Amino acid sequence: MTVTSLRPRPEPAEVARVTSTAAELLEVLWGRASTAPASASQLRVLLILEHHEGINLRTLADSLASTPPSTSRLCDRLQAAGFVERVVSAADRREVRLHLSGRGRAFLADLRIRREQALRAVLDQMPAAKRVALLQGLEAFCDAAAARIHDDSGDSADSAASGTRTA
After folding, report:
1. Is this model's pTM higher than 0.70 or not?
2. Which residues have C-beta within 8 Å of that of residue 123, sequence separation ≥ 6?
3. Where in the chain does DSSP place strands (E)?
4. Residue 128 in this model has a pLDDT that exceeds 80
5. If DSSP codes are grouped into helix, strand and coil, which group holds residue 167?
6. Which letter does DSSP use for residue 95 in this model?
7. Where does the pLDDT of residue 140 fall: very low under 50, low under 70, confident under 90, or very high at 90 and above?
8. What distance lies between CA 90 and its chain's CA centroid?
9. Which pairs with CB-CB distance under 8 Å and at least 24 residues apart come from 25-33?
10. Taking Cα atoms as reference points, which of 20, 73, 17 lies closest to residue 45?
11. Are the beta carbons of 104 and 46 closer than 8 angstroms?
12. How distant, in Å, are the alpha carbons of 8, 78, 91 from that of 134?
């Protein structure tokens, strides 16, 4: 399946189209490495908690662009599954801090292993030079995306203040 013709300087729109197609194919591959027993929304919570250990519910809700009640229900289900622990803040007893449990960490580690196995099966079919080019391109993409996300994180307070939220 060829999704693009090779040109020396592809336009950002063409690269975006091919990247979008790759992301869709990646979702199909990763779908085979099931995220059960966690839903996609619950998986997002686990990934955020992994990178922001001990955040409070409001900060998590902001990260999800959701409301605190919806986020609390997600955390209720994750806590019932043994993936999340709630700890009362030492500084303020009214504030609850969210942490991944050992089971939550093990779930993410196992999921990553299954996803990487699915990816390796595809990458094994690619010529080595194309894998090198893919790696270089993905590293540059990750750097640019991380910078964009970091720059946009200051904007989340603006959208929260305007009342723009989704479940």
Report:
1. yes
2. 131, 134
3. 55-56, 84-88, 96-100
4. yes
5. coil
6. -
7. very high
8. 29
9. 26/119, 29/115, 29/118, 29/119, 29/122, 30/115, 30/118, 32/118, 33/111, 33/114, 33/115, 33/117, 33/118
10. 73
11. yes
12. 15, 35, 47
